[in-house]
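Response to reviewer comment R2.3. The reviewers asked that we include at least one raw input/output pair. We reproduce the pair for Bifunctional NAD(P)H-hydrate repair enzyme here without editing.
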Amino acid sequence: MIPSGAPIVTAAEMRAAEQAVFASGVSQDSLMERAGAAVARETARFATGRPILILAGPGNNGGDSYVAARLLQNAGHDVSLVATGAPAPGAAERMHALWHGPTSSLYAARPRPVLVDGLFGTGMTRPLERGLAAVFADLCKQAEFTLAIDLPSGIHADTGADLGAPRGIDVTLALGALKPGHLLDIGLERCGRVLLADIDIPVHTRWRTVTRPRIDTPGAHSHKYSRGLVAVIEGAMPGAARLAARAAMAGGAGYVVLAGDRPWGEGPDALVRREVRTAEDLSEFLGWDRIDAIVLGPGLGRDRRAEAYLRAAFAAPKPLILDGDALTLLGTDAARWLETRAAPTWITPHSGEFDRMFAGVGSKIDRTLAAAAEARATIVHKGADTVIAAPKGEVRLLAHGSRWLSTAGTGDVLAGLLAAQVVQSGKGVAPAEAAVWLHARAAQLAGPALIADELIGHIPGAISECL
Ligand SMILES: NC(=O)C1=CN([C@@H]2O[C@H](COP(=O)(O)OP(=O)(O)OC[C@H]3O[C@@H](n4cnc5c(N)ncnc54)[C@H](O)[C@@H]3O)[C@@H](O)[C@H]2O)[C@@H](O)CC1
Ligand SMILES: [K+]
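Raw output as returned:
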């Protein structure tokens, strides 16, 4: 569980935001008191009277531990504290001085039912030393409840990479804002439930977690064309395009046309079919001014005709959603091709497709942002941690989507759903955020062992939660 619509900042941005708070006259000690008070509050809520063991590292994460230990002890809790070494000079050292209980060595620590991890937070820069990681993992294993302060020690704040974090953290209390490490890579698995503590540090960022969209009920004067016409192009595997077309219909598009050389197969009667056999046919069809968005790629194939279809779709001055085989065809030339389009483009790669199209370094957010800027397209980089990035720097992140979505066809459904949102809600991240939320919610409603066809049936239920 991750708070929705929450700001996400890097460790450096968080430090800068803290410096701005200090510059406004708030002392480092009082900020640490706020952080420690939030930790004490949440720990008390979950501890329900059980004995508490608090781990304190050398830096400010440890400083928060000393504050929490003092406040919990003052409130009558049974608290033991262990430290990895002397606290760093400054606020952490001053908070240590205010802690009047004993401080013992981590290596002598006895497990207790409640564990609070204040070893390292955003200052985590290198892997945990092996012996320390083993002791820490063992204490987590033997605890009944574990809360990590800001981040689990052993998770890289900016990338979510594993620097030796234990399994079994139940709650991570993010201080001030979420960090990418709560949402990406191994961090996503190891944080448990993420709670956000507002410690009154203003942050300014264009990165947020995905929120539930607001969807308008069609107005009295709405008609099929005003609600948007989506054209889905069929290729070698017609089932994939049909899934996308049906998802566009369920997603609220007013009119959906499936265009291909075998469009007459199964599917709803409300789906309009159009026979298209060559790239010339396709160009002519895409010239129809009623078309508001095009979906190309699901089941397209990778032959010469598929390439010609891709060129025809690129040339059409319409919003374009590219998925699957279209992305494979773009390959390493993706950015060069995509940036030539005048009309808006969305691409929906999974990590394998993304890595074939774009180089890049850094976290999944950094790489997706860089690719979006280079390609001048909005990118929905799918996965357990789905990152949406737009060329001008906007980021939305959906973590904890249903793991049952990892089956064939669910990506085709997302592409169609995205097209339906594009024709209804316009540009950039907004339609992508709506589509990703609806897709994840439909998956939750479909439950375990879902198949892509069933997912479509739950889209209206997801939409009804957004009205
Ligand atoms: N800056 C502030 O005033 C505030 C910071 N806060 C807390 O401070 C944390 C950040 O504090 P720090 O910047 O001091 O950093 P940490 O407390 O996360 O880490 C302390 C130091 O440990 C060292 N270190 C990193 N990886 C290590 C490893 N594998 N083994 C051994 N040592 C390692 C680093 O040199 C780092 O400076 C936040 O996560 C948050 O918990 C909060 O108290 C709010 C206020
Ligand atoms: K921690």
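Residues 61, 117-121, 148-153 surround potassium ion (ligand 2) (CB under 6 Å). The first helix runs from residue 11 to 23. Further pairs are available on request from the corresponding author.
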